[in-house]
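Pasting as-is:
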Amino acid sequence: MIKFFRKIRQKTLTENKFGKYLTYAIGEIILVVIGILIALQINNWNTNKSNLKESNEFVARLKAEVKSNIGFTQEEIKKKENQRRSSLAILKMVGEDITKLSSKTLDSLINISMANGNMEFKNGTLNEGLNTGKVALIKSDSLKTILYGLPSLVEEVRTGEKYMNEDLNDYFYPFIYEHISFRQMDYENTAHGELIGPSKFSSHNNLNVLNILKFESLIDNIFYNSNVQIDNYQRLKTELENLYNLIEEYD
């Protein structure tokens, strides 16, 4: 088409018809512009199609990751609820007549109360999306808002875990090692108890810790920290569930 206009333009020049030449020149320019616009439109369409495909693949992987993390938070909430119940049960034993209490019961409650660790949380897909800009390709503003805010919420959870683990490691464990016979505890509560036998310190009674103020304070800290962490995990679980529902709607 352009060659056609070019021939006409050359003919008009040789015939000294400048007006017609200008008309055909403008027509040629318009055709070039239209061609460029069409090419750009096709390129944008291909780019958008590619971005949509990449976004959908990312969201599908993110959905599986979020589902796993909901399960992890549920497990951690159960652990912390057990820890809270056990620490509360110990607090109710403090000040009671130890001759009427069971050492085996106390040992079992202490075992549950002293559990530490961090919640498992998968964030590989989320980090990939944030670092590569894939989150920005998502069309849902609500979905993007939660994804951008999720790392700070996870960081709050990690901070709470850090404080609780430090309290257990720095204060509770040293106290327990000094005042509780783990051999007697294992003898009475584990499958290999008969192999190791009872403690040779026969005069020691684990129930004596119930009359020590520091022990009461340490257990109270566990109870308090457990409540804080349950709230943290619950907020995270709620946000993850909201995220999962938005992803399902996005699908």
